[in-house]
Amino acid sequence: MIAFDTILQAHDRIRPYIHRTPVLTNQTINERSGAELFFKCENFQKIGAFKARGGLNAVLQVAQNNEGTAITTHSSGNHAQAVAFAARQVGMPAYIVMPRTAPRVKKDAVLGYGANVIECEPTLEAREAGVLDVIAKTGAVLVHPFDDDRVIAGQATAAIELMEDAGKDRPFDVVMAPVGGGGLLSGTSLAVHYVSPTTRVIAGEPEGAADAILSFRSGQVEKAPYINTVADGLMTTLSERTLRIIRENVAAILTVSDEEIIAAMKLVWERMKIVIEPSSAVPLAAVLKHENLFAGQKVGIIVTGGNVDLGKLPF
């Protein structure tokens, strides 16, 4: 298991490059949910998403340890931007394999950071094959979106800040994050385990990409019965690494429909006046769907990002 010192070292390493994002509350949403919600706004993070944390922690170490002269990864968007941004900080070329269906806004952002985009079919097999081809041609070092201890340790720093900034007077009853590949959820659950062991960690997952809940139950990495969700950042399956951490430290995974995700996203836009992407709305959607589970509790939510394609809003 990733040690607490490793997470603290990651926080120190990335601190000069990231924002310490705010924790916001909203009375209307509290009243509607029946809970006391605290939103850790990683939509205000560098590159517009929490993934700057894990990408920086990994790439900075690749550069410091002279592990290679280029970086590669595969991603549908936010991790792609994170690695491109981090590679620019250390002056290394980055080769990012992205599904052709990834939002244009995310591809443009990756290109804007000076990285090379290699498009592939929207399957995990195609993404992994694309990365292997890049490595064969360039010798680039892979920074995996979630199956990497250095990435997980970086992602854990968001929950550390959440608990430091809003959990000291009274610990959180629950901390929530969405789950796709499980990097953020793994890191969040480890941070909570070390800092506030009485706090439960609960994940939200789209019904249209519901592999994590099956894996959580069976103990083996499972595939979703079908992939069809507005939450484009959560379509990836868990890895053995993230599943192991999640099963040890996460209390539950709750699934929500696209209709519930869109309603939660719209509520945040309207009431909090902030831009969040569909994946970010999944935990709130789970709270609103399961009011009885959260009633009267203090709940922290990692708002994962705000890189939404404004030309394709779902409302």
Structure in words:
The protein is an alpha/beta fold and 315 residues long. It folds into two domains: 4-49 and 148-312, Rossmann fold (3-Layer(aba) Sandwich); 51-142, 3-Layer(aba) Sandwich (Rossmann fold), CATH 3.40.50.1100. The protein has 13 helices and ten strands. It has helices spanning 4-14, 27-33, 51-64, 78-90, 104-112, 124-138, 149-166, 183-195, 212-218, 240-249, 258-272, 278-289, 291-294; strands at 23-24, 36-41, 71-74, 94-99, 116-120, 141-142, 174-178, 200-206, 252-256, 298-303. The strands form two sheets. It has a six-stranded mixed sheet, sandwiched between helices. A four-stranded parallel sheet has the order 5-4-3-6, sandwiched between helices. Helix 4 (78-90) links the parallel strand 3 and strand 4 (94-99). Helix 4 (78-90) packs parallel to helix 5. The longest helix has 18 residues, at 149-166. The termini are far apart. The model has no long low-confidence stretch (mean pLDDT 96). This is Pyridoxal-phosphate dependent enzyme. Pfam families: PALP. Residues 14-305 form the Tryptophan synthase beta chain-like PALP domain. One of its GO terms (biological process) is D-serine biosynthetic process. Keywords: Lyase, Pyridoxal phosphate.
